[in-house]
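Q: What changes when iron/sulfur cluster is included in the input?
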Amino acid sequence: MELFTVTDGCTGCGLCVAACPASLVRQRTPGQPPQALAGREAHCIRCGHCVIACPTKSFVHTLLPQDAFEPIRRKEFPSPASLRHLLMARRSCRAYDPAPVPRDGILALIESVRHAPTGHNMRQVGYVVVDGPARMDAARQLVLDWIGLEVAADSPRAAELHLAGAARAAARGKDVIFRGAPHVVVAHAPIEGISPEVDATIAASWLEIAATASGFGACWCGYLMFALAAHPQVNAALGIPAGHRGYAALLLGRPATRVGQIPPRDMPEVHFY
Ligand SMILES: Cc1cc2nc3c(=O)[nH]c(=O)nc-3n(C[C@H](O)[C@H](O)[C@H](O)COP(=O)(O)O)c2cc1C
Ligand code: SF4
Ligand code: SF4
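A: The predicted holo structure follows.
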């Protein structure tokens, strides 16, 4: 199967050649239409950069239908100042309206971050949305069970995360695990792979920003992330597919209160090398 074809509009400019990260698009002679590197079709990561690089829309990728490409509307980009303000205004939300977020709203957030980058364009990040009070109770209990094991073992993890204190607070009825959020969203990816943990973490980070932009509150749920890392059975109990692991977890809901200020954060140390 040909990896791609080019139509008569090709000017031989070579931009598709330069754009392919896998060097699969070659030009025998400058100024001539490109050819696919024979026998290496399986190395294509389906990133679409060859197609989008072509100024005359002459590059037709066999695996990527032309009508699946969308035009970029640069006028709709947020200004640098408004994006900066959104990023500065993102905060960890620890007080939620207990009402669940409609599934459509959660799906819209997840849909909006589907272009998050992944190593080798693997795009294997999936999500489990813990939905409803009964499921949140069950998920919380999984975390408390993990905390109980760490505390009983007097583990270094228990000491560094003050897990005994968390267990005591939970016993007093304080929800230090999920902070009363109606949902926790777990981003999962394969256990083995190029960069599954980074890919899932990037996706969840984008999700947190998208949630902020849509007026939702979110907060990283380290307790659940540590439990997912420590115990395969926590992954299975949450319905994470076999062969995958939950790497990132975000509490999600409508904030119970709105804050009006941005606390100070130092400029990080930067060295130019
Ligand atoms: C963890 C990670 C590592 C990556 N490493 C490289 C890299 O070494 N070289 C490169 O050209 N692209 C790298 N990328 C970019 C991916 O190949 C790219 O995100 C993917 O092909 C999808 O293309 P897009 O980002 O244009 O949507 C990396 C992306 C991630 C998330
Ligand atoms: S989709 Fe990406 S990897 Fe495949 S040929 Fe095009 S540019 Fe190269
Ligand atoms: S980018 Fe388009 S016009 Fe330029 S060489 Fe490739 S197919 Fe031809």
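Observations recorded in class: The two ends are 46 Å apart (CA to CA).
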